[in-house]
Amino acid sequence: MIDRKNSGFKTANIARPSDVRLIPFNQTKNEYYSVYWDVFTPQTWALQQKAYDEEKKKQQEMEMHTTDIIRLGEMQPERDHNFTGEKQITGEDHQKKWRSTEGGGFLSFEMKVTPNNQNTLINTYWGTDNRGRVFDVLIDNVKITTEDLNKYKENRFYYINYEIPIGLTKGKSKVVVKLLPKEGNSAGPVYGSRMVKD
Fold first, then answer.
1. Of 124, 106, 78, nearest in space to 179 by CA
2. Which DSSP letter does residue 154 get?
3. Is the peptide bond before 77 cis (omega within 30 degrees of 0)?
4. Is residue 48 within 8 Å of residue 40, measured between CB atoms?
């Protein structure tokens, strides 16, 4: 007798870091699923595992230095950071929500900073070949840089650092981050922002 409810397969000593249970597609109703697999030989896995471990360590160090983080496109985090915007849209891709503008507009939100340290804003973007994604990054209405997302071509997340001049955060506990598109462009999509201290 076939148990259709609990049918599936499990890898046997080939998946890392642990074996994976595979279930029929029609049972993935409320679950995320992926159709891409990284395949390694034992030798290439040893190299890749080292790279994964280094990336994990880097992520842990970043978490230790994080002052604030906002998940854009999510209601409560946006409320907590006094998010505002004009001509802005939201969506979800790559299992993350995002915010963007269209036809002008702007995105704005507050971020905590450390008044006596160097602060760096880290925005998360997804690489693509789309055009028309050039915008200014402002801190308390002072432009610190112009970003051109069109240069990030690979289909992956990019974590881009913007070092904030110390004069813009000295004596402050928070600042307003504003993303303002150039004429004929959009700002974003932005999947999240993080403030870190050095």
1. 106
2. S
3. no
4. yes
According to CATH, where is 2.60.120.260 located in the chain? 64-197
Percent of the chain topping pLDDT 90: 58
Closest listed residue to residue 90, CA positions, set 75, 77, 103, 79:
75
> Side-chain half-sphere of 46: how many Cα atoms within 13 Å?
2
Q: How does pLDDT run across 4-32, given as a tens digit for each residue?
A: 566 777 888 877 778 887 777 777 777 66
pTM, full prediction:
0.75
Q: What per-residue confidence (pLDDT) applies to 1?
A: 38
Cα 110 to Cα 27, 78, 91, 152, 175: the distances in Å are 41, 9, 21, 26, 6
Say if CB 125 and CB 157 are below 8 A apart: yes
Residue with tokens 């069109």: 150
CATH number assigned to the domain with residue range 64-197, chosen from the 4 options 2.40.37.10, 2.60.120.260, 3.40.50.300, 3.90.180.10: 2.60.120.260
* DSSP, residue by residue, 85-123: EEEEEEEEETTEEEEEEEEEEEEEEEEE--TTS-EEEEE
